[in-house]
Structure formats: structure tokens, C-alpha cells
Amino acid sequence: MNKIDVFSHVLLPNFYEKMLMLDEDLPNKMPFIQNPVLIDMNERRATMPADTHQIISYVNTNPEDYLAGKMAALLVHKANEELLTTVQENRDLFAGAVAMLALNNIPESLRIIEEFVLPNEEILGIQLFTRHFGKSVADPDFRPLFEKLAEYDIPIWLHPVFDERKPDNNIIFSWEYELTQAMLELVQVGYFQNFPDLKIIIHHAGAMAPYFAGRIDRILPPEQATDFRKFYVDTALLGNSKALELCLDFFGLDHVLFGTDAPLGILPVGATDVITEAIQALPLSQEEKNQIFCGNAKTLFGGL
């Protein structure tokens, strides 16, 4: 069975070295980045799940958090080039990659979209985070990016980060709240109304949204409740077939894509096996399961 993992991560060695120069304590602040499968592509190949190609994006180590706009953009350029080279040199592992931006330099980020993402078929979209500089991803400052991405039909991968205003952030629940809140803000700001073909892929199976469908439908205006179902989502729930059933009920089969957060979640190589088992346990035909495993990704990303 062929699978396309749409949400897996890397921390490539040249970029990681530069980030360590900016913050030598980074491995202690984010212990998960010490996983060698993030960095070493030989290690990656030795542990790669069978019949799987991954779409890779960087873990959330962002130059914009350490450098002013011009320098952040320069480092992002180098990181993106390393990402592209890694895909080109490891086509047996990777189906494509997702570019970084520097959101403290919007003009240069727009240039990255036009001059790096568009010309390189291996670059399938860009990654944004639920918050940048303490502001929601739906903040008006970032609207030019959504306009440009919608204009060129370039998908967005949305990954959570902690809201540093909160004193009790934790990896189990907080990120799921942050994703859900960002989804609500993107809906309420009207992006799906303004940009009907906008494509946003939400990590962790749409976070809290499938389990609060009744509140979404009864509290939001009808058009916003409808817009909530326009997100695409992955299957990165560390298993949990029953939860995936609710995800499918809410977003629909066409909007659910196989994604595992590899190599994170279950050390050392990720949750590919348990997520595969959870999908296989769904009350779907094998054709419908294959649509999740690879068909929807091929449709969304132009064939792959």
C-alpha cells in the first residue's frame, strides 16, 4: 500500500547549526529536536516506514524569533534551499517539502512565494504557525500572505505553537486548543469568504473541531459553521480510530489526508504504524482508506 505522509518534520543539519549559534540552549528548550531522525537522512532512510513518502517541513525553530527582518529572511532562504536539495537528493523518501517564511519581513516572504515556491515543483506549499510574535495568524498584518497564497493556489500547512501569555502550556492539550482557536479566527476574519479556494491543512486531525461540532453549528453564523468544514486535516492523532471517525464526519472524506507528525509522537521514528492501523480499522471501504492514505494528497497537490 502506498502512503503519502503530508505532515512530517525535519531539522536539517546546516540550518540546525545556524539556529544553535543563535540559541545554544535550543535542545533543552525543545527536547524533541534531539531526535537524530530529524537531522540525519541516512538514519531517516534506515527507519523509514515501508511504502511511504513524506512531505517534510521544519520543526518550529523559526529565524523570525531570533533575528530582525532582513537577517531572518536571509536565513529562511538558506533553510529553504537546504530543504529543496534534501528532497531532490532523497526522492525515495520524500514526495515534496513545505517552505518556511519570515513573518517579520512580509515583502521578502511574498518574494519567497513567487520566486522560490512557485518555480520549484518539489515545494508544495508554505508552513505558518498559529501565532507569530504573539499575534494570531489571522492578524491583519499577515493578510497579504493569504492574498498571495490564494492567488497562486498554494496550500498552507498550519502548525501550533504555544501562546506565551498562558502560564500552563502543555504538549498534550495546549497545542490542540491553539489550532482550534486559530481555525476560529481564520473563519471569523472571513478568509474563506474572501478567498473561496484557499487551502489550509490543519495538523492533528482538526484539533478540537470535530468534537465540538454541535457548538460550532449552533453558535456560529451558518456561513461560518460551513467555512469551518473547508479546512483540510491530517490524521496525526497517535492512533484513535474512533476520533478519526468524528474527524471524517466533520470534515468529509475528501478533506482528510494521511499525516503522522513523523518522526515525532512515538519515538524514535513516529506513529506511522499506529495511525495506519487506526485508519485500517475505520468503517470504510479499502478504496476510501486509500483515498486518505494517498488519493487526497495526489488530488490536492497536483498528482505527485
TrEMBL record:
Keyword Lyase present in the record's keywords: the answer is yes
The keyword Metal-binding appears for this protein: no
- The residues covered by the Amidohydrolase-related domain are 37-302
Q: Which InterPro entries match?
A: ACMSD, Amidohydro-rel, Metal_Hydrolase
Keywords attached to this entry: Lyase
**Protein name (database record):** Amidohydrolase family protein
